[in-house]
Amino acid sequence: KNKSRRLGNLDFSHGDFHHLDYEDASIDLIFEMEAVCHAEDPYQVLSEAFRVLRKGGLFVLYDGFRQPGFERLPDNLIKAAILAEKSLAVNGFERIDTWLKLAEQAGFRIKVKQDLSQAIMPNLARLQLLARKYFEFPFLSKIFLKLFSENAMRNCIAVFLMPFTFHNKAHCYYKIILEK
After folding, report:
1. Does position 12 have pLDDT exceeding 90, yes or no?
2. Which of 29, 32, 72, 172 has CB atoms 3.0–4.6 Å from 61's, for a disulfide?
3. pLDDT computed for residue 149 by the predictor
4. Three-state DSSP class for 108?
């Protein structure tokens, strides 16, 4: 906020994206990164974003989703994907096709739908190497548990599993631009 105070048309806020504290048609752009996966009611979040955006306004997001056909994957892959999601404190990723239908039902036009899953694989691989050290060296695990919260350490499970779940088409990562 301090760095942007000279920009009169920029606002940062904190709140519940299920109930945005803005007037109807009062915002030009909403940017979200890896948050809608935590929504209790994705349709409500999309409806709120649509409500507060001006005509032609954009909702730009980067987030993780389940792939179409998730339910037909092998049981061990589904269990790994669910464990990764729970480790990220997500009740369950929405399927990308279902989520996009909800966006259209909320009134949005899908302007960009770009699968970035392959682009993030190198980062997932690097994170997996770090997580592997956590699991391979129990003495490090004990030190990390004392330094960091248990919830932060659960992320090690997610980053350990996610290269597997992405490679085997359980999860995907998208850049999406929705227009009102």
Report:
1. no
2. 32
3. 72
4. coil
Cα separation, 75 vs 117, in Å, equals: 22
- Identify the helix (H) or strand (E) that includes residue 27: strand 27-33
Report how far apart, in Å, the C-alpha atoms of 122 and of each of 74, 147, 166 are. Answer: 25, 27, 12
* pLDDT tens figures, 57-68: 999 999 999 999
- 0.70 exceeded by pTM: yes
Please tell me the least confidently modeled range out of 44-53, 58-67, 83-92, 141-150: 141-150
Amino acid found at 7: L
Tokens standing for 176? Answer: 């999406």
Q: Of 4, 1, 63, 52, which Cα lies nearest the Cα of 28? A: 52
Q: How far is CA 67 from CA 1, 58, 167, in A?
A: 37, 24, 11
Cβ(19)–Cβ(48) under 8 Å? yes
